[in-house]
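Project outcomes to date are best conveyed with an example. Our students and postdoctoral researchers have been running inverse folding experiments weekly, and each run begins with a structure described purely in tokens. The record below, which covers 394 residues, was selected by the lab manager from last quarter's runs and is presented without edits.
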């Protein structure tokens, strides 16, 4: 490669007219799943938890909401987020190299983006929500970013070996924890009675969460699957990939549902909960996240074939284009509404009520995104990240 190629500056961030509908549509819906997944963390009126942060007791409606959430949302929204993150990195590399940017410069761009993701996540974690995922994905990007430039065969080999290692780790974890006492509500930052006390707890929770996420949660695999999907441009050309997307969607969602069912049935006492059921639920969640992405690829193909976007689609796409802003904003809204140092609604509500608070929060995100879209403004978090990452190229 010539010296001129090495010195060429990276092209700017993706322009609006270059964006594919499928990833943004998926991000818009993903935010709904994240809102629903996070609201149980703020319920503080019951000292004991069944599993996945859902409190025991409550009415039949509470149990139905818990069952549905375990089946569709829990440990499925994060893998979905991870696939989209990996897909986004792959598309950045593709666009940069196609524009003539050197591989060396593109590598630096990816590293810079991941570093700023870590900084954004650290600020998010320490200010409002310990269990941040931006930091984890930033670290994964730094550790495995070289695979963005690797041959497809090498990427698939790494995914295969890491999958075996991760399954082994999760099964070992289940075995070590089996037979122990049932999990109870820890004194977490989400239910702290004062903002100062919440910050103090977040200082300890945040680093623990990072290590736990990287070792005990299967998040690395879906990021790399997202890279593979980006290399194949599955969501950039969904109409040409409908057969593959349909197979991935059917297999992924079916495996996800079957894997989630045993743990979800513990809500009604039809199955005895165990660490092995939790492991099954977690592993099958990867299939769910990948299947959901493929499903939105199919939906976007139908929308493209129709030749027009309705208002609902436009609203979801606008939200997906501001997914970073929306992700940060949802944490602020939930904390203010549900935490004890906020309005404290988490002390009075159970699963059924907070489920609708999660949906209401998502509607607020959509409203804000549509408002910004009509004003012609990007999300403030996206704008800041682009300026920091692309610098003069922005």
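After processing, the design step wrote out the following sequence:
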């Amino acid at each position: 490669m010539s010296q001129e190629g090495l010195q060429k500056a990276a092209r700017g961030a993706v322009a609006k007219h270059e964006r594919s509908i499928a990833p943004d549509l998926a991000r818009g819906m993903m935010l709904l799943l994240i809102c629903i997944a996070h609201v149980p963390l703020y319920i503080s009126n019951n000292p004991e938890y069944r599993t996945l942060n859902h409190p025991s007791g409550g009415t039949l409606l509470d149990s139905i909401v818990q069952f549905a959430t375990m089946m569709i949302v829990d440990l499925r929204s994060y893998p979905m987020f991870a696939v989209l993150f990996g897909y986004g990195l792959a598309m950045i590399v593709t666009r940069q190299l196609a524009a003539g940017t050197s591989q060396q410069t593109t590598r630096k761009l990816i590293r810079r983006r991941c570093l700023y993701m870590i900084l954004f996540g650290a600020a998010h974690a320490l200010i409002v929500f310990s269990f941040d995922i931006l930091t984890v994905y930033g670290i994964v990007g730094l550790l495995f970013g070289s695979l963005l430039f690797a041959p497809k065969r090498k990427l698939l080999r790494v995914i295969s070996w890491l999958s075996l290692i991760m399954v082994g780790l999760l099964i070992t974890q289940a075995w070590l924890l089996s037979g122990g006492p049932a999990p109870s509500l820890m004194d977490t930052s989400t239910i702290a009675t004062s903002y100062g006390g919440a910050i103090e707890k977040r200082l300890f929770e945040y680093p623990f969460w990072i290590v736990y996420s990287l070792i005990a949660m299967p998040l690395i695999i879906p990021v790399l699957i997202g890279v593979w999907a980006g290399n194949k441009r599955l969501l950039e050309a969904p109409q040409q990939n409908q057969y593959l997307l349909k197979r991935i969607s059917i297999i992924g969602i079916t495996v996800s549902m079957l894997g989630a069912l045993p743990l979800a049935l513990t809500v009604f006492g039809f199955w005895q909960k165990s660490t092995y059921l939790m492991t099954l639920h977690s592993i099958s969640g990867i299939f769910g996240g990948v299947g959901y992405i493929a499903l939105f690829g199919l939906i976007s193909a139908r929308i493209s074939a129709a030749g027009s976007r309705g208002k609902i689609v436009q609203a979801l796409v606008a939200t997906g284009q501001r997914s970073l802003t929306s992700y940060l904003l949802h944490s602020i809204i939930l904390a203010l509404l549900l935490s004890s140092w906020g309005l404290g609604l988490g002390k009075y509500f159970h699963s059924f009520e907070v489920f609708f608070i999660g949906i209401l929060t998502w509607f607020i995100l959509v409203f804000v995104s549509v408002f910004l879209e009509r004003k012609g403004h990007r999300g403030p978090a996206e704008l800041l990240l682009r300026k920091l990452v692309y610098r003069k190229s922005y």
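The longest helix spans residues 275-306. The radius of gyration is 21 Å. The training component of this project remains on track.
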